[in-house]
Amino acid sequence: MGVLTCGFLDSSALDALSMFGGRRSGHPQGEVAMSNTKNTSQSQSSQETQDSEDSPPQKEEDSRPKKERDVTRRPTPMEILREARAQLAELTGLVPESVSSFEQTDDGWSLEVEVLELERVPDTMSLMASYEVELDAEGQLSGYRRVRRYERGRADARRGGR
User: Which of 59, 86, 106, 162 is deepest in the core (most CB within 10 A)?
Assistant: First the structure.
């Protein structure tokens, strides 16, 4: 059976250790040195356990056929909303403030996005606009149009069904 020794070494002991092939970290207060005088199967298995904990986790093999794994996944509704807002902002130069309607259609998605078109003081007099945005099934913008303009501080007039 091997002996495991552990102790605190001062700088003179560290210098002596380095003369016999030991390594010194250069810490001014000394360091803890550990040595195992016999390489036992128990110490080997504990080392293997430590090595496996330090290594990145192995990915499990996907049992689905390759053709199924290569099919692109369908974007989530939140991904669709974020992408639609980003694409509309890039095309119009206007920053979307909110999405007031969102629905899936036969061809993809339809949204109504509220944007600030003209900032005024006071803010309640700023001009807002609603844009109808059409997206394909993958979430790519296929068209948009402004459907109304209004002052931020005004309540909506009752519109049929909306």
Answer: 86
From the list 129, 101, 134, 99, the residue with the least C-alpha distance to 115 is 129
Contact call for residues 111 and 135 (beta carbons, < 8 A): yes
Per-residue pLDDT, 45: 54
- Which residue type is seen at 20? F
DSSP H or E run through 18: helix 11-19
Altogether, the residues listed in the chain come to a count of 162
User: What gap in Å lies between CA 140 and CA 151, rounded to an integer?
Assistant: 30
Q: What is the DSSP letter of 78?
A: H
Provide CB contacts within 8 A for 116, sequence distance 6+. 94, 95, 97, 126, 127, 128, 152
Percent of the chain residues past pLDDT 90, beyond the cut = 46
User: Which token pair is 53?
Assistant: 């904990």
Which residue, chain included where needed, has tokens 């040195």?
Answer: 33
User: Minimal CA–CA distance to 113: which of 84, 74, 139?
Assistant: 84
- Backbone angles phi and psi of 49, in degrees to 5: -60, -45
pLDDT of residue 46: 53
Assigned token pair, 44: 């080997």
